[in-house]
Amino acid sequence: MPRLAVLHYALGRFGGAAKIAILQAVYLSRMGFNVEMFYGGPILDDWKRKAMERVPVNSLPLGLPKSLQDAKNIIMTLKELRAFDAILVSYGVCPFFAFYLTMFFGRKVIWYCGEPLRALWEEYVSMESYKGLSRTVEPTSRVLYGKTYSSLFLSRRLYNASIHIIRTLDRRTAKSYRKIIANSRFTGKIIDQLYSRNDGVIVVYPGIDLAQYPNVEVGKCQADFILAVGAMIPMKNHITLLKAFKKLQRQHKAQTKLVIVGDGPLKSEILSAIQELNLNVELKANVTEEELFAYYMKCRFVVHVALYEPFGLVPLEAAVFGKPAIVSSVGGPKEIVVNNQTGLLVNPFDPEEISNAMSYLVRNKKRTCEMGLKAHKRVIEEFNMEKSSERIAEILRSII
User: Domain 210-382 classified CATH 3.40.50.2000?
Assistant: First the structure.
């Protein structure tokens, strides 16, 4: 039985990437691999239990030591990884640790790429400066690497030199992976643009773990609110959504309520916008998975207009419950939703277009229900975790 290490570091928060990494470890263990997971960063208790019920979970260090003990942990982990037949970097690890992996084990390392590290490459992904778009970079860096390193890397005087060095390191790492798998065609194009590998990029969509949803009742279209799910960070585009909802609220006064599930550094700004625009919006933070499922079950439809998101689990989760999604026409979500069949595609920068799409689904309840049923069928057939993991297993076996 081949030994497989699945590595993931949740940089700053537990989200969809961490869930997929854990599911990949669990499903690949069912497919004949002797899997161990190496995980760093925050993790929800129920997801930690889910992983540990099936595979051993080891601690994964960052690659930039802040102490002698950190350096010892890095060396110890690299020694442990030497014994594995293949290493799957799921979504991402610290860029310095990724460099060590390819330097010592390059021929047996595969990268399942959710997106290149955005703090390095934001301008290539979205044509925006990371400083203007992602205010989460500096606080996340301080938590992960400490004040001293962060002050050096992100200082005005050294920033350009630091970014040049880390980008060079990242390109060297990406070219040394045995193979790269992208989670969407959108991500694949960015990888081609940034790293110029000769062997091309394989696209394997992530999937939903259908076993998570044992009691889903599909077809219930009696719902009383619109749902948005996502961390309160700039990329999730909440402010534009609120502007769109303001227009919708004027058109359908008593019929509209928006529930936003999420938390994050922009929460106070979002709360201020809700009050300023006088919106019927409810914020929900720190919800359990069961509570989140209940919101999906009870909502009319989901709005997910993130900016340049590489994939996006939210439309898939909504589809499991038979709910269509309004998603961004840029980035990966447009590969999930079939326009006018399983949901609607909109320009995420245009509040009026988003509002018109919401209005259409509010006014056409029967059509909304039909779209939701088609979305459910599509996610079951095309975006399930077993199908996704089988394809990854084939690729892993080809290098062992």
Answer: yes
Cβ-contact 71, 93 below 8 angstroms: no
Q: Which fold does the domain 3-207+384-399 belong to in CATH? A: Rossmann fold (3.40.50)
The answer to whether 105 touches 82, Cβ cutoff 8 Å, is: yes
What are the domain boundaries of the chain? 3-207+384-399, 210-382
Please state, in angstroms and rounded to a whole number, the distance separating the CA atoms of residues 340 and 364: 12
Rounded to 5, what percent of the chain is helix, strand, coil?
50, 15, 35
- What is the mean predicted confidence (pLDDT) over 42-58? 91
Which of 41, 76, 29, 35 shows the shortest CA–CA distance to 56? 35
Please tell me the pTM assigned to this model: 0.89
For the cut 90, the answer to whether the pLDDT of residue 231 exceeds it is no
The pair phi, psi for residue 195, each rounded to 5°, is -110, -20
- The whole-number pLDDT of residue 315 equals 95
| Residue that the structure tokens 């269509």 belong to | 324
Nearest to 316 by CA among 336, 290, 335, 338: 336
Which residue has better confidence, 140 or 134? 140
Q: Amino acid identity, residue 21?
A: A
